[in-house]
Amino acid sequence: MYKKLEAIAFVAMLFFSCSTNLFGQNLKINDQEYFETQGLNVLVFSNQYNGMFFDEKTAGIELIHHGVRTATGGAIRLQNTPEQWDLVPVLVNRTVDQEHGTIEVELRYEEFDFNSKIRVSAKDKGVEIDVYLDKPVPEQLEGAAGLNFEFLPASYFEKMYLVDGKPGIFPRYPAGQTKIEPKSEKIPQFVGHTTFDDRGRDEFIVPFPLASGKTVVLAPEDPANYVKIQSDTPISLFDGRNLAQNGWFIVRSLLPANKTGKVLSWYLEPNAIDGWVRKPVVEFSQVGYVPQQQKVAVIELDANDKPLPTASIYRVTGDGKYQKVLDGKVTLWGQYLRYNYAKFDFSEVKEPGIYCIQYGDQRTNTFPIDPGVFQDVWHPTLDVWFPVQMDHMQVNEAYRTWHGEPYKDDCLQAPVNHEHFDGYRQGPTTETKYKPLERIPGMAVGGWFDAGDFDIQTGSHNSVISNFVDLWEEFKVDRDETYIDQKTRYVDIHRPDGKPDILQQIEHGTLNLVAQCENIGHPVRGIIVPNLHQYHHLGDASTETDNLPYNPNLKPYETDGMSSGTLDDRWAFTNRSSFLDYQTAASLAAAARALKGYNDDLAARSLSSAVRLLEEADEAMKNAADSTDEPWRRMMARGADLNTVLQLYITTKETKYLDRFEAKIWDALEQPAGNRDFGQMFFAGRSLVPALKAIPYLGDAYKEKLKGYIVKYNESIVEMEKSNPYGLPISRSGWGGSGMIVNAAITSYYAHEAFPDIISKDEVFNGLNFIFGCHPYSNISFVNAVGTRSKKVAYGNNRADFTTIAGGIVPGLLLLKPDFLENKDDWPFLWGENEVTIGGSAEYIFLSNAVQHLVSE
What GO biological process terms are annotated to this protein in UniProt (predicted)? Predict the structure, then answer.
């Protein structure tokens, strides 16, 4: 009997997998203004292309297919397989007609005075996508402008496609054919930059399509990912990874020349499994819990699901058996964005051991309850991730060399009136003694790669150094697992050298900041490679430049052994900012304390630079106050100097600094939050933390006055608990919110230490629990290689290998407007979700130690 049932089930599955939309429903536009049916959403420019980073793969027409975003970038594009820095259209307007089931957008390429309209309409079991032109395609865009739609490779690996009935396999690794065409025919990229190598080539690479036809079916064997596209105009299927590892599979039809009106039409039909309901996601800390802390799992439920009344906790015994220890009530929280949420409190389970949660027919992976669960969660970040990020050093780990010594050729003065990439630009003057492209001496020292790329960002360095000094002073972190030799420029991971790693890292970051102050004259926005074809470099940082100083008397790629004619040396962008001066002065004043007795020379130079920067920033601010420069006025109102004078007082004990702090802190605490989503909680990190740090120096009366602001801060926490089931500031911007969560938890730590009767230590634990898995979309730990289940891929410099660097914390959840929070763990190239940064990782180390301190208390 069992065999018969198994055979029937197999035939049914085979029949379904070869059919589409057997039980599908018509798409309708919902109140969130996107097309919806059970198991399928079609977003039409709910998210727009980013003018700064161009194509972030989070814009245009997009599919959320059975709970997973599998397609994006539906728009008029100018390349077969656009790269990140290729031109993107600007959204002129968007019109939603809910009654007639249409969404229409108008797009414009200003560079070509070219407008197009895309109308998406509900039709049959899918949507019709029509392109309209009021004027013909401009002559220079004929054969270039087309309707593109991009499908996530990770969703289609190991699946097949049909093009006019002919089968093909989606390649795991790009292996399609390419051709070379004259560069004169290439549509220019962002302000003249190019991602193509410049080694004497006057040409560019063009991929051939994998297949072409009028009916394209993706994943015909997989009901969850099946998509059919039909058109009277030929459709080509491309592999965008031939040009860039972050490319997607692209379907594309060219717009015809010399035509207006409706010039192109597609019928797009993604399969919707009848009655599909997303499985509940049981969210909890993958690191586990200490016995005494509050333990609450959050259960994320599909809108069509019904919460179960109870859940259970099982203990895994030493003989491998599962023993139920708790049946508990599941409490419905309510709706947040697109899902419903419930909570399961199992705080009463306190006995150390290995546990899992049972909800319905789901049993989670295991996690520990033990007094020591937080003791080593930060070790991979300090032991591995930060050493790998060290600039100007060769970094080794056992049998592996992460990178050689990079950027021996640092650095040149950036040219004036230059718009760069990644937010860098140089103004009309250098604001230094150096001429454009003149060598700045003494800069090939210290610093960290900011993130998944290889630039030095000064603001991030300030954050790291400040957090590391706090670690040293607050928790006396003296762990030694890394060999760091500044003389030989060599780092060896997992090799103690008798020196605290935190002090060595403070030294390493401070070396670069002091070099900026002494050799450039002031801290700079950052130091970055000059060419876009260098910037997308992946792998060993020491090969991004030739490591030879630029010599204008030599030809490109010519070398005399000591220098080269290749203009690949990094540029320093030297626009001066009083805010950055204040911030750097604060970091250097703090570093001077930590380094005293360890590197006295560097400590003295740090303090000297800090004092000078404060004086020069004060003078600049004074001059700005007499002008009508509104940004300067706003910055002054924020009290950018508060942390600077506090740190200088702690270091020097000169009362003039403390007097200035006390005189200005109250006005700063009264400033509006500047963030409509998170109110008081947001401003806390800017003003409240320095105010709390000042308590030991200003006495009881000061602390009593500050208490009122802590009460207000607690009120913001209460309000936050009403806004989402996690009670934390979940970001709704274009960058994941892990940093905001960690920052809020750190603020709560300082507030709890000073006012434990107002701020509970649970607020600190909750932030770390969120990072470790109690968050929307999934339950994986956002810290690579930390926790039972953690991030498998991340946006590091090794992202092309689909792996991680242990210890890095990713940005986490990215909101795809209007209501879809996402963190992909099968596609590392979405930096807003997966790019690890030095600032965020340093804050994570501090929070981990803060939580362990609370446990020890």
Answer: polysaccharide catabolic process
Helices (H) and strands (E) in the chain — how many of each? 19, 38
Q: Other CB atoms closer than 10 Å to residue 691's CB: what's the count?
A: 27
Q: How far apart are CA 133 and CA 115, in angstroms?
A: 7
* 224 and 338, same domain (yes or no): no
CA dist., res. 401 & res. 381, Å (int):
18
Record the tokens describing residue 92, joined without a space.
Answer: 């002129």
pTM: 0.94
Contacts of 30 (CB under 8 A, 6+ apart): 36
**The CATH number of the domain where 219 resides is what?**
2.70.98
Q: What is the pLDDT of residues 609-635, one digit of tens each?
A: 999 999 999 999 888 765 544 454 445
Spatial distance between the Cα atoms of 191 and 196, rounded to a whole number of angstroms: 14
Query: Which of these three, 270, 303, 335, is where a domain ends?
Result: 270
pLDDT digits (tens, 9 = 90+) for 347-378: 999 999 999 999 999 999 999 999 999 999 99
How many whole angstroms from its chain centre is CA 146?
30
572: which strand partners?
A: 413, 527
Query: What is the rounded average pLDDT of the residues 316-334?
Result: 97
pLDDT digits (tens, 9 = 90+) for 480-496: 999 999 999 999 999 99
Check whether residue 229 and residue 334 sit in a common domain.
Answer: no
Q: Alpha carbon of 503 to those of 373, 461, 485, 800: distances in Å?
A: 25, 15, 13, 33
Domain boundary among 335, 369, 403: 369
Q: How far apart are CA 247 and CA 238, in angstroms?
A: 10
Same domain, 294 and 234: no
**Domain range spanning residue 350?**
281-369
Number of other CB atoms surrounding residue 815 within 10 Å: 22
